[in-house]
Amino acid sequence: MESRDIVIIGGGPAGLAAAIAAHEAGCTDVLVLERDVQLGGILNQCIHNGFGLHTFKEELTGPEYAARYVDRARELGIECRLGTMVVELTPEHVVWTVSPDRGVHAISAKAVILAMGCRERPRGALNIPGFRPAGIFSAGTAQRLVNIEGEMPGREVVILGSGDIGLIMARRMTLEGAHVACVAELMPYSGGLKRNIVQCLDDYGIPLLLSHTVTRVEGINRVEAVWVAEVDESLRPIAGTEVRYPCDTLLLSVGLLPENELSRDAGVELSPVTRGPVVDDALQTSVEGVFACGNVLHVHDLVDYVSQEAAAAGRAAARYVANSSSEAESQTEGTREDERCLSVVAEGGVRYTVPSTVYPARMDEKLLVRFRVDNVYRDRFVSVYVGNKRVWHRKRRVMAPGEMEDVSLKRADLEAAVGATTIRVTLEEE
Amino acid sequence: MTDNLYDVVVIGAGVSGCAIARELSRLDARVCVVEREEDVCCGTSKANSAIVHAGFDAQPGTLMARLNVEGNRLMYEWATELEFAVMQVGSLVVCVSEDTRAGLDVLLERGKENGVPDLRIIERDELREMEPNISDDAVAALWAPTGGIVDPFGLTVALAENAAANGVEFCFNAPVSEIERDGDIWVVTAGERHLRARAVVNAAGVYADEMHNLVATPDDQLRIIPRKGEYFLLDTTAGPHVRHTVFMLPTKMGKGVLVSPTVHGNLIVGPTATDVDDKESTDTTAEGLAEVATKSSLTVRDVPLREVITSFAGLRAHQEAHDFVIGEVSGAPRFFDCAAIESPGLTSAPAIGVMVAGLVREGLDLEEKPAGEFEPTRKGYVNLMALSFDEWSELCEKDAAYGHIVCRCCRVSEAQIVDAIHRVPSARSLDAVKRRVGATMGRCQGGFCSPKIMELFVRESGMRPEEITKRGPGSQILIEEGRA
Ligand SMILES: Cc1cc2nc3c(=O)[nH]c(=O)nc-3n(C[C@H](O)[C@H](O)[C@H](O)COP(=O)(O)OP(=O)(O)OC[C@H]3O[C@@H](n4cnc5c(N)ncnc54)[C@H](O)[C@@H]3O)c2cc1C
Ligand SMILES: Cc1cc2nc3c(=O)[nH]c(=O)nc-3n(C[C@H](O)[C@H](O)[C@H](O)COP(=O)(O)OP(=O)(O)OC[C@H]3O[C@@H](n4cnc5c(N)ncnc54)[C@H](O)[C@@H]3O)c2cc1C
Looking at the whole model, is its pTM more than 0.80? Predict the structure, then answer.
């Protein structure tokens, strides 16, 4: 069987950044597996700019941002197998791939990095009553049709859900000559970035209807109209508020789901909140030697954070490979079970954190903990307690579910709190 | 015009019409199936519970009872011959309150009278053992080991492909609007075509009454009432929630819904039963879906409704007498009804096929094809999910396209989609591909693979992207005039 130090599943921004970082950390036997015929993942269809402000201090388009990583991976001579889909991962790190040129092919890896990204939540999950005609697309599918295939999915459009892809597609469709009647959002706040609401809706005069949903789809063969109604506090449509929008297209931007079929089959523990793997400070999952990063771990809004996180996973995997080789000789390092571990608890409006466990003895000097909040909060403090001791306390003017937040933990603080077993991340009024 | 003269014209390419066509293809006869939709299996046959009923439901002595039990037996035989997916998982009718328990005995007796084998009443403990997620209220159940689940699209397509391979013609997008007599010959107007036939079979589903009434005398009019049933389909992660088909024994509070695994590994929950006026109203409703959600918990615990990937509705071809209407219409020689085929019509299809083909054969005095000219078997589509990696590997060596996964959720490769596009009757829309090989049916509902399947249509059948439809004319995926 082919044998590799690190196998990375997915050649999007996460997989590429992880591969580069692992290589730069000294592990040169890295293989990237990508089912598409090109690298870059979702970025290939994101032809708008706004990528890379944090990493490169310039505004790049998605493909431009991806190209920087693809070029670097080439320079380093990292092998990337395209058109190669991973169909199974075993707990023992055997990666089964399928491709037209190799057929079914197994690779044994010392470490595996999961970087499969996410997929869009489909219509069925919403239970919108009515017919199931042509003309209902997830926003990402429409984006692919318009930006990659050069096709036009519709002329008169209603968008349900104000996730970033929906917002971006509202602008894209408008620029392509379609008319976007409205963006309806079930929640009283948008799921997307503030920046996108301004640049994609406000600038084009597209109304954002908060606390609204689609209650019915008309049309047997192709969408003819959708009905949009206001919802009450328990998110149920309010009778009498229905408005009929004649249209030929309904785009859905109602959430992204990390793509974890492979992880689940490999026995990786998943979080019911993020639907991504539960990881420690090294981004290692519950299965030893299997790491995760990018949208497969939790849904990101900025690709810069994906790249950062993935680089950390790459370095950690390289360290794992180095340790497991030296371990074989000297038996120095133990497994995670032998060590002190603190769990990170999300509380008081914090939905989840990544990571959810921290090993003080292994962690870097400083550790970034990312999280999302469950509602819109104004003028709240983000606090972190290690045991009973508050180690972080900073005011944030506005926090919203659509934007990822972070706090930074110092190893020194964890080591100082000798008996502590938890790290609580919470929101406080003062 | 002998060109246009058929021995038999079958109206409707649902499971009934296709089963009849397949059985007719054993005979030395020229047969044409006319269908108003763009493909087979576009009516009720595509939207039902997909259960192979054991046969204890129908009243003894009815046609329904006989054809159900016979169909059940044939279904498993034909699955081998025609390579479609069926699984004999067995079914349970669960009694959830002591005071209705007698109902189980009624079903047991009825089943025995109908000739259903191996029926047995099981008590709480055994039931719990067999079905760990059964409701805490469950007290006993009727166990029918011959019950099963089938792929209704796979079944209908298999019948149609085998019929076509044995010479039956299919004519799609051809709604029958008139049926007239010209001497001994029936003249059937279907879209632009005028087909002449010595015999006609009416297997038009919810529209079978309209076809019947075109030829029947005023005192012999048929009325089909569409009775809507709505469903949830859950992700494959929820599929193992139950192991058998779980029905509820009706109580004073009414009928429950069934909870069952499907042959594709999903979980199906439903249906409702509401009479509607419109024969096109296969739309789901807020009330219907809410009812399914509420009733799902009556027999089974913790049905994971958050795993719903789609919902759909089908129309039962209900008729007052609640029995199949099969036979020659009086005053209309050699016009055969196959009407009011409501549940268990899917199960009964093989037996219906045999019976109706028999009536036609007698009516026209047809002979069987000479020995060796009828091919009873048909190759199924490859199902990669069911293969070992070694078997898959062998396929890839023969055809590299098996190594190119197009639908990631249901693991469907380019090779299977190309196969579907080139068989007869061929797949000409996204839904037609779905019915044959399962692509777009999974948890992302085509978000990922639809654009890729469209590319294959362009490559394989020379369609322009704008011509590709979801489900036939009028359901184009893209906007025709291109970009602004
Ligand atoms: C529509 C849209 C607009 C966005 N706009 C912005 C923006 O304006 N600014 C910004 O900073 N960020 C934006 N983002 C976010 C950014 O693009 C994503 O966060 C980023 O692409 C995630 O990277 P990833 O590598 O985790 O996932 P992906 O980019 O999804 O890459 C995952 C890769 O894994 C491959 N893969 C999956 N499963 C397998 C398998 N089994 N075998 C082999 N390969 C597999 C996939 O083919 C894919 O190439 C946007 C995202 C979307 C979807
Ligand atoms: C909710 C529900 C649940 C069910 N569950 C089960 C079950 O679990 N097990 C079971 O055994 N049975 C079940 N059934 C019953 C089963 O689905 C039907 O009995 C069976 O599919 C009927 O097949 P058919 O070919 O007669 O009708 P259809 O599949 O409706 O086929 C009729 C065809 O005729 C065509 N047609 C109509 N008018 C014209 C015209 N003018 N010209 C040309 N073509 C025309 C239609 O387009 C259609 O394709 C269920 C039914 C429903 C509605």
Answer: yes
